[in-house]
Amino acid sequence: MQIFQVGGAVRDAMMGLPVHDRDWVVVGATPQQMLDAGYLPVGKDFPVFLHPQTHEEYALARTERKTARGYHGFAFHTAPDVTLEQDLARRDLTINAMALPPGARGWQGLVDPYGGARDLQARVLRHVSEAFREDPVRILRLARFAARFADFTVAPATQALMRQMVDEGEVDALVPERVWQELARGLMEPRPSRMFEVLRGCGALARLLPEVDALWGVPQPPDHHPEVDAGVHLMLVLDLAARLEAPLPVRFACLCHDLGKAATPADLLPSHHGHELRSAQLLAGLCGRLRVPNECRELADLVAREHGNIHRSMELGAAAMLRLFERCDAIRKPARFEAALLACECDARGRAGRQEDEYPQAKRLAEGLRAALAVPTDVISAQALAQGRKGPEIGDRIWQARVRALEEYLRPAAAV
Questions:
Q1: What's the predicted TM-score (pTM) here?
Q2: Residue 416 pLDDT
């Protein structure tokens, strides 16, 4: 039995990055030998075990054989005679196909049959073998790595192979849950725009997210959008969201806020009047297709519908501001509304030459919401009930009290 550390832990250590999760491959062992040694079985498709003390994953060396389209169309073979090199050959990228024996000092003993160290140094994402084409998820994974390691390029042969996979319909067989999983992870990388650049380059974005892909080439008013192209604007927004360390729901809302611009009637261009409603309609289809979690779906819908109104909110008086809060359900869900403000800030600042601009709308609306929430609705309700008032009348009193609170908040700003 021989044990080797493999995959991302070796790659990240070689790059001087923190290592969080370690994976191990066991060569020359049977499942029974692993059980006899105290390892705990967890694998369903192939033998994977947890170390009895560290609880890290130890997988028996295996090979794979393609049996059908898509992510699940594989047959796995494990046996004591499967070599480490055979196991590494089934991995996606050369930088993920290196191994180290436990306790290795530095890189002494590095097993690198496919040139991963060379590609790390050259900053290249390259497939290990033709087996890459057998798993369409690898296109998504490579795009995600491009978003993580933004200074890496994709090897031309790998780019061509991904294009062939798309043309052959492999990505069409991907299950929605796996597409969403990789998309969500890619959105959380330091440079999300690189993920979409890679997916567009091989044609996968048009198959997986046609609503997003359609934004490239859509003109915008140059007075509001110096970058002019709606797709270029989207990438600036996403990268700014990453720079501001926005959570996933905010980044997804940024991704989808302008979907309707691709459906703008030609006679309106470069204006995009009414694109907010079109964005919400397209978003509904995208979320249903990918089974997007409710938290992401709901925030994205809110931002798609209201981002234009939030951008123009510096002009709102007290009653109009309260109506905006009500449309956004901000009174009941203030945290979600503040997340929407962050997405709108990314949209406003994610424009050529404007990344360092301020976004006063966020401060004004957040403070206004706090003023509205400070109204003692329980006291107002109790007083109204004591006077024999009923539901609609109580609601009107609360409304008027909130308007007065907002007027008081806005008064100093108006006086200045």
A1: 0.90
A2: 46
Q: Is residue 280 part of a domain?
A: yes
- Rounded to whole angstroms, the Cα distance separating 198 from 154 reads 8
The label of the residue with tokens 């980044």 reads 251
Rounded to whole angstroms, how far apart are CA atoms 55 and 49? 9
CA-based nearest residue to 45, from 68, 78, 70, 23:
78
316, 328 Cβ separation under 8 angstroms: no
Range(s) of the domain holding residue 401 = 370-415
Percent with pLDDT over 90 in the chain: 75
Residues in the chain: 416
Question: Within a domain: residue 260?
Answer: yes
| Dihedrals phi, psi of 188, to nearest 5 degrees | -90, 0
Are 155 and 127 in contact by the 8 Å Cβ rule? The answer is yes
Q: Indicate which CATH number applies to the domain containing 23.
A: 3.30.460.10
Where among 75, 99, 114 does a domain terminate?
A: 114
Residue 318 sits in the same domain as residue 279? yes
Burial bucket for residue 318 (CB in 10 Å: 0-12, 13-18, 19+) = buried
* Residues 8 and 108 occupy one common structural domain: yes
124-128, 142-146, 331-335, 390-394: the lowest-pLDDT one = 390-394
Tell me whether residue 175 is in a domain.
Answer: no
Task: Give, for 247, the enclosing helix (H) or strand (E).
Answer: none
Among residues 120, 110, 114, 78, the alpha carbon closest in space to that of 4 is found at 110
176: in domain: no
Contact yes or no for 50/58 (Cβ under 8 A): yes
Task: Quote the number of domains for the chain.
Answer: 3
CA torsion angle 377 379 384 388 (round to 10)? 130
Which candidate, 275, 276, 301, places its Cα nearest to that of 286? Answer: 301
Q: What is the pLDDT of residues 273-329, one digit of tens each?
A: 889 999 999 999 999 999 999 999 999 999 999 999 999 999 999 999 999 999 999
Domain co-membership, 49 together with 104: yes
